[in-house]
Amino acid sequence: MIVTSDEILKGERVYFTRLQFENIYKHFEWNNDPELNHLDSELPYSEEPLGDFKKRFEQLVFDPNPNSIDFEIHADDGKLIGVAFISAISEHNSHATIGITIGDRDYWGKGYGRDALTVLLDHCFEDLSLHRVAAETFEFNDAWRRLVRWAGFEREGLYAEYVRRGDKYFDKEVYGLLEGAYRYRKLHAMAGL
Ligand SMILES: CC(C)(COP(=O)(O)OP(=O)(O)OC[C@H]1O[C@@H](n2cnc3c(N)ncnc32)[C@H](O)[C@@H]1OP(=O)(O)O)[C@@H](O)C(=O)NCCC(=O)NCCS
Predict the structure, then answer these.
(1) HEC assignment per residue over the chain
(2) Looking at ligand 1, which residue's alpha carbon is closest to its atom 15?
(3) Across the 193 residues of the chain, what is the mean pLDDT of every consecutive 10-residue run?
């Protein structure tokens, strides 16, 4: 595992850094990727000019919203492969919403998402002391749904026919993971159960 001075969170196969401005072109590429947009955005795809993206990205890097944290996900070979976020952080209620995008398709389906989610949840519960973490998925996003269920999230409800793709509507599912369930699962994993 390559360790850089920017590394702030470390898993078995990935490490996280904060967003780095020098990587803007990779983020711009993923931002303008129609397939990624289909899987993780409520907004219809439209190509964003580099100038507009640069303004938004500068804000995310240099003047981030205090209620959100954005990370870069790097594989163990050092390559930048995606992003992870913790958003809508409520200090008072100790809850937040998370998401992960492995932007580099060469790294899909190989366990990097699973490791990234483990790192993200450890940070949420161990470092940020959250009580509850939420995740949302569209009904057609099998990989993300499988991943959050694997991590112990329970489906709490859905927004029926919430998102439009072409002339069809699809549900948005809401998942939640409480601290107690996270700790119970960790203990079982450590005990090899
Ligand atoms: C969702 C995502 C993060 C999963 O990461 P990944 O590294 O590809 O997934 P992993 O290899 O860790 O596998 C995690 C689970 O997803 C399943 N999975 C992976 N790719 C899949 C696919 N194309 N179709 C169905 N299931 C898939 C795996 O089988 C595994 O489930 P299992 O444990 O029940 O077998 C990644 O595919 C991605 O970034 N997709 C695009 C963006 C997105 O949808 N983000 C989520 C919303 S914020």
Answers:
(1) CCCCCCCCEECCCEEEEECCHHHHHHHHHHHCCHHHHHHHCCCCCCCCCHHHHHHHHHHHHHCCCCCCEEEEEEECCCCEEEEEEEEEEECCCCEEEEEEEECCHHHCCCCHHHHHHHHHHHHHHHHCCCCEEEEEEECCCHHHHHHHHHCCCEEEEEEEEEEEECCEEEEEEEEEEEHHHHHHHHHHHHCCC
(2) 147
(3) 63 97 98 96 94 97 96 96 98 98 97 98 97 97 98 98 96 98 91 75
CB within 6 Å of ligand 1 — which residues?
36, 39-40, 82, 99-102, 108-114, 141-144, 146-147, 150
Structural fold of domain 9-190? Aminopeptidase (3.40.630)
Nearest CA to ligand 1 atom 45: 101
| Nearest atom (ligand 1) to Cα of 150 | 33
Domain boundaries, the chain: 9-190
Write the residue with the smallest CA distance to atom 7 of ligand 1. 113
Name the residue of 43, 144, 165 whose CB sits within 8 Å of the most ligand 1 atoms, as the mutation to test its pocket. Answer: 144
pTM over 0.85: yes
For residue 145, report the distance from its CA to the centre of ligand 1, in Å.
8
